[in-house]
Structures are given as C-alpha cells and as structure tokens.
C-alpha cells in the first residue's frame, strides 16, 4: 500500500488526477472487481450519465423528429442543441462546420466514400499506412488508390508534388489518415496535412479519422481554413455511451458530398415511386441531405447528458490527456525494464516510435509482445486468456490496423497473405506463425484509469511471464495458454 501511495504522489506531479480514485466507487461501480484496460475499444459510461439520461426520458416525451407535433418539436430542438454542443466541444461553431449524426466512425467514413463514389468521374484515393480497416476499405470504391507507407512519403507528396489538374477538370481525390493509430497509439498530424493538401492539391479533399484520438486528446477545429474537410468519430469512445458517431463536415467543402446515389427518408424533397424521378434535398445544412431516415434521436439526447456528465467528472480533454499520459509513461517504462533474471532477455518488445510523455505524437496506448527466457515469442492470445482469468480486460490481435501489424511485426504483404492461406484470420488464435507474431497485446488507458490498474497489470505480467531459477531447475515461460504462474523478485 505504501508503494501505491508513493507512485501516486510521483504521478500527480506529471498530471495524474487522484480524484478519479474516489469518484470510481460511485460513478463506475462496474469496475469494482475489474481492471479495465481497453479504452481504445470503448471507454466507460458513468452512473451520473445513466441517471440523468434516465430521468430525462421519464420526464419528457420525445417523438420522431420528422413531424410537427409537440413531442416531435421537442426532439428536434434537443437534436439541434446537441449539434451545437458538439461543435463547441471541438472549438468551432455552425458557421464553419456541421454535425451529421450516424452510427459510428465507420458509418461516417462510408458516408464520405459513398458520396465520392457517386461523382460522375469517380475519385482517386490515397491513405496513410496507419489507417484503420474502415479507412482502407474506401479504396474498393475508388478508381485508383495508393497507400503511403511513411510520414515522409506523405510529406513528399503533399509538399513537393503540385496539382497540375487544369481548370475546369472535374476529377476529384480523397486523402485519408487517422489522428491516432489504433495499433500503436502513434499520433499523426492534423491541420498540417489538411492545410497543405488544400493549397497544393486543389481537387483533393481530406478525411480525418478522429475516433481513436478524440477519446483522450482535445480535437481543435477552430481554424477551419486549415482543418480537415471531414472528420469521423465515435462518441462511445469518448463517453462510453451512447453508441453514436458523427461526421463533422466543413461547410466550404460540403458540396462534394451531394453526389451520393442512394437517398433515404427525409433526404428528398419529392419522389415518384414508379418513375425514375426524384428531387434530391441538396439545400440547407449538410445533415439535411446526409442523415437518411430517422436519426437516433434518443441517443442524441443521451449525448447531451454525456457531454455534461463527462465535463463535471473530468473537466476538459486536456486534463484527461495529461492524466492518461502520466500513466502511460509509468506503465511503458516499467514494462520496458523487465528482464528474465537467468538470461537477461527483455520480457517486453514495445511497439512505439515516440516518447509516451509527448502527447502531441503519442497516445496512452501501450502495444507489445512478450518473449520467454529463451527469446521465443509468447502468443498474444494466451496473454489475453490469462489476463481474463484475473478479470483484467485487454485487447489482442491486429486491432483492425493491417498497416500497423505489418510494420511493427515485420510482416510483408506476401507473408500476411501466406498466413491467411495457412489458416490465420482476424480474431483467431494463430498468434505466432513462421517465427513472427501476427498481432500484439494492446493496453489502452482512459479518463477513469488509475495507478492501481497499472500496478495490477504489471504484477500480472511479472507473476505470469517472468522466468526465475530455483535450486532444482530453471523454469522457462511456456508461451500462450500454457504459461506457468511464476513469482518474480523484480520490483517496481
């Protein structure tokens, strides 16, 4: 216990928020016996959020907003209010951006892809290696695509290749990248790339996947002249609830999204069923012609409560960024220092390119694989299985990030295809093939993470995977599910 207090005191000076430890008992009772370290999957909802939303539903009657009766008007007014609150959260307003509600970040990305694919001449697509699977999938709708394998390659294209498309040419392009890799937690530039794109490639638009980033870092869209054209995000990653996403649309760029072929209820002004005639709703706000059917109005009401509750509990996202970074620095440093006493081999291979203390370029995500005392890989699926037995919640695998897996695990495209031919698919237990990992262990921290969570995970790694020598024989980490529980004398 004394060690815990000592570690807490050291971390407070680095931005750690000790108030989280007390609030968790009331606000996050679901964590009573659990060590939750999968915030990149989703962060957790608070008791105050659930109570305030429930009280609202008991008090008010919300109807389908596609009408003019009192309950419909109440829903419409609430939706409009929450749109403005979302923009305020990201330091912008409705004169510069609009909020299009959808199911999640993937749905937001697909909305952009469908709009660009409906362009008469199609579109060219470029994306960064760190892209989530949902961003990679956009290439299937494009005329041509290219994956930038590094920041340097991206910078060269953005800064040295000037668009020579003649005036009047209707060819368009889309460049997409994530704000944060959901494999390694590496953070990529935001306005730097979108601003350069806007000035040097006049017919290209920018699509910024902020889903992983926005959970623990402020998203600033105040400079709309430099900020991305389209931003995709998921609110459950930020607040735990509701299961809702959004596409944030830069108004000056919204026109390109009017080329979608599909239309749904509420996005046409007039329509004939048995004749191919319709009058598309291509006026008003972008959400008027992009939100097909009835929007998730109850979830949008819940989002308003989520914003309020989250701010009361944690302040702003800048504070959350400091809190999670302090824990990430602590955890990564301790993991990196672990060695097998008998052989001196490092226990943990960290997959990180930057300093965890630098929140500009690195998020609170610690991704790694483990090695036995003989240097052999320990399968990540077994690590997740063993952690689950201790009620420790982590995530393992490829994390929907094929570029990250290839880069950090040293896998070529040919090797990844061969692994598939030999039976490996996403989510299975083929975690080491042909001498290389096919994915990794990922620990991700959130606003309600504590130093005790980190210490419990460190103890788990030490007890389960560090080999020690006894007088009779030397034990080896046995890998994956068969790893033997061994005690280590290494201290924090």
UniProtKB/TrEMBL annotation:
Gene3D superfamilies per UniProt: Type I PLP-dependent aspartate aminotransferase-like (Major domain)
InterPro entries: Aminotrans_V_dom, PyrdxlP-dep_Trfase, PyrdxlP-dep_Trfase_major
Pfam families per record: Aminotran_5
Residues covered by the Aminotransferase class V domain: 35-456
Protein name: Aminotransferase class V domain-containing protein
